[in-house]
Amino acid sequence: xxxxxxxxxxxxxxxxxxxxxxxxxxxxxxxxxxxxxxxxxxxxxxxxxxxxxxxxxxxxxxxxxxxxxxxxxxxxxxxxxxxxxxxxxxxxxxxxxxxxxxxxxxxxxxxxxxxxxxxxxxxxxxxxxxxxxxxxxxxxxxxxxxxxxxxxxxxxxxxxxxxxxxxxxxxxxxxxxxxxxxxxxxxxxxxxxxxxxxxxxxxxxxxxxxxxxxxxxxxxxxxxxxxxxxxxxxxxxxxxxxxxxxxxxxxxxxxxxxxxxxxxxxxxxxxxxxxxxxxxxxxxxxxxxxxxxxxxxxxxxxxxxxxxxxxxxxxxxxxxxxxxxxxxxxxxxxxxxxxxxxxxxxxxxxxxxxxxxxxxxxxxxxxxxxxxxxxxxxxxxxxxxx
Length: 386
What we know:
Elements: H1 2-8, H2 21-30, E1 34-35, H3 36-42, H4 53-69, E2 73-76, E3 79-82, H5 84-93, H6 104-116, H7 122-128, H8 131-142, H9 153-169, H10 185-192, H11 205-217, H12 224-234, H13 240-248, H14 291-302, E4 307-309, E5 312-316, H15 317-327, H16 335-347, E6 353-354, H17 364-370, E7 372-374, E8 377-379, E9 381-384
Antiparallel strand pairs: 1-3, 2-3, 4-5, 5-9, 6-9, 7-8
Helix pairs in contact: 1-4, 2-4, 7-8, 8-11, 9-10, 9-11, 14-15
């Protein structure tokens, strides 16, 4: 289950992000506990650019099951709380602040300080509350300047102008533009404006700093909330060096074949030996679940895709099957075996299945894919008890 949760927080074939969905949920639960509604409100906005609300709920449920199984969190009456074992990794992640956060707002501040490699000082915290201050720290971190203090707009504009000149003429240009040499403000802004993807001239130092920081961070507007959101989302993206390495892979071409490959000879359906004579890979070890484990996994998979109102929420059996197939390949279940176990779980009272109103033609394909024929009844849904 843990492997499936980690996969839900990453894109296949990409580098690892600084924070996975599972780790982010653990951090949120560690700050005073949380309900599922709290997680939806506080964590889901950080992932809207990568997954839909339905995908987030599905990933969150699988992550919660994994965290509970690992002994990192507990659940009582619908509220999730961190254990001592789970608090340790949270404390390491919140090491940027002097005290463990008591609210999610404080926790986000800690994550931002860590992302900017900034110290937890009164002057830095004050800067984080202003668009100009937060933008300045973003630029100082981006261009390798110290983040121990916040540079003034004029000083930062001069530093950005030097960065632009270094990119154009090499590092030697810096020897002629030391501190105090003083480029004219307009000329400095013109040079710093070359750092935009589309070079432009900005009328003031403050606008230059904010607009450039918004472009670098990926913020949609020049506000503290937008910059904070962009920084937190960047923690869920692959590291820059990993992205660069990944971008270089397509340039490595394989050597061309000397002759075109021949089309393979058709293989009998019952032939398990490869045609090239190589050894057969060892068969995958499967471990079918027992009924209690199966029922718990079905409920966890059904909850995020269930529809309806409290007390009458139901999930298509076909959607639950897709989630189980992806999350637990080690079970080695076929769709027929899965539906057979569902029918047995319903018969024994461990789960409750429901039938659809055939007058409702909203999703005929899902109804057809979900049906289970059992005696004189056709089941289509797994009922979720709230």
